[in-house]
Amino acid sequence: MPSRRINRTQVAKYMEHRKELDQEAAAAKAGISVRSARRIERAGGLPSTQESRQWRTRADPLAPWWETEIVPLLAGSPTLNAVTILEELQRRYPSDISAALLRTLQRRLRQWRAERGGEREVYFAQEHPPGRLGLSDFTDGAELEVVVDGQRLPHRLYQFALAFSGWRHVEVVLGGESFEALAAGLQNALWQLGGVPQEHRTDSLSAAFRNLNAEAAKDLTQRYDALCAHYAMRASRNNPGASHENGPIEARQGTLKDRLDQALLLRGSRSFVNLEQYRQFVGEAVVRLNGRVGKAFAVERAALRALPLRRTADYEELQARVSKFGTFSLRGVLYSAPSRLIGHRLTVRLYLDRVEAFVGGVKVLTLPRARPGQRRVIDYRHLLPALKRKPGAFARWRLRDTMFPRSEYRRAWERLAGELPERLACRAMVGLLDLAMRGACEAALAQRLTQILDAGLLPEVALLEAEFAPRTPVGAAVCVQLPALASFDALLSGEVRA
Questions:
Q1: What is d(CA 380, CA 458) in angstroms, rounded to the nearest whole number?
Q2: What pLDDT does 58 receive?
């Protein structure tokens, strides 16, 4: 057939049919043309029995420049590709070099590298015995385009995997590749796994290794060293820039995101009500992935080492002092605190998702940890009691915009500030926040404010107070009649009979 090479099987079939049929019929049976049949008969045998052609059918178009121009370029820079060399030749000889020589040049370069090229990297496939190696890695989840509470969720996915069975554990991480994220994810994986592998490998995570300079890059951080020592795991990492050395986890990052993307398409929506719903979605997808490796996991589970008696710390401990403004700073983020803590030095534990503050070993405060890009975490309930005594400070307060628990309250302030004198607007806004706190009706009050503002009205604190303020419980009247003391004397003397 045209444009198709005739193979050995077709030639053998043609020659077999030719014993009984004429040339045209035998060629048709073998699927070749009559012209090819004549050429086969002239050759007198199979293609494998013929000598290969050792002569050229046309002049070498690269002969004038191969030894004098191209080979010296390759000798100096063996990784030059054909496109670069052809462009350089066209620059030097614009009238003699045609772009049509590209394919010829590519074939010649491939042949030259096979004959005289340098050594290339060899990849050595490894065998992973059960229970020997567990790996951790982070991957960016932005390409999944997940939306939580109406906003795009910038996040990473932490994944732990066993090299032998492929069992994996995945967590959603809001933030960077921090030690807290690594420690929490790794420990959650190990306790869910119910055992510990002999070795734990990562890439060059700054959470686990000091990457500031060449000397410190070889040292484990003290916290990561303590974490691995607690679980009796040997810590290792791949060489910088050699991601293939972490193949058992790098490959699974791609399959994980592909599976999550397919599950999102099947779900029909990438929007989630809250972060917990998205985390549950990821967990269900991982359970289905682990269902595929059940038999191998059963083998590896038996080879794992026992867990220690308890978990170890998965937080960073810092010191902070609460300023006169009712705030303290951690890692460039401003957090609020109740005014009773002003002047106190706090021992703060920085977890992956929360911040806990202690005074003298007693926990006095818990706050959500700031998300990436967030520079202030202010709980309006901490500063509201002081603000009620000085409501006029609200208008030009530097932290004013962080005091609104929902966008509806911000909208209410903009309307109040635009239509009322500053003093009255501040009192009204502080009153609304106080009502939301006392009545534990933050969401319900926000909905009511939306209705009022959409109607073109101003919120009146007195009316909303009557609607949302907590009611004082009224107990039922109970009349208790006390018996005369003399009746007890009668009981003791035995005068009263049943």
A1: 22
A2: 81
The separation between the first and the last C-alpha atoms of the chain, rounded to the nearest angstrom, is 120
Hey, CA dihedral for 4, 8, 9, 13, is it positive or negative?
positive
Task: Say which range, 68-72, 176-180, 438-442, has the weakest mean pLDDT.
Answer: 176-180
User: Helix 442-454 and helix 422-438: axis angle, to 10°?
Assistant: 140
pLDDT in tens, 442-460: 889 999 999 999 999 899 9
Exposure string over 171-191, b if 16+ CB within 10 A, otherwise e: bbbbbebbbbbbbbbbbbbbe
Task: State the Cα–Cα distance between residues 29 and 17, nearest whole angstrom.
Answer: 7
**Could you read off the pLDDT of 198-240 as tens digits, one per residue?**
999 887 665 555 444 444 444 447 788 888 999 999 988 766 5
Residues 6 or more apart whose CB falls under 8 angstroms from that of 425 comprise 395, 413, 416, 417
Q: How many helices (H) and strands (E) does the chain have?
A: 18, 15
For the domain made up of 133-303, give the CATH fold.
Nucleotidyltransferase; domain 5 (3.30.420)
DSSP 8-state secondary structure symbol assigned to residue 175: S
Q: Are 238 and 246 a contacting pair, CB within 8 Å?
A: yes
Higher-pLDDT residue of 418 and 247 is 418
Owner of token pair 């014993």: 19
271-272 β-sheet, strand order? 151-152, 147-148, 271-272
What residues are paired with 168 via a beta bridge? 161
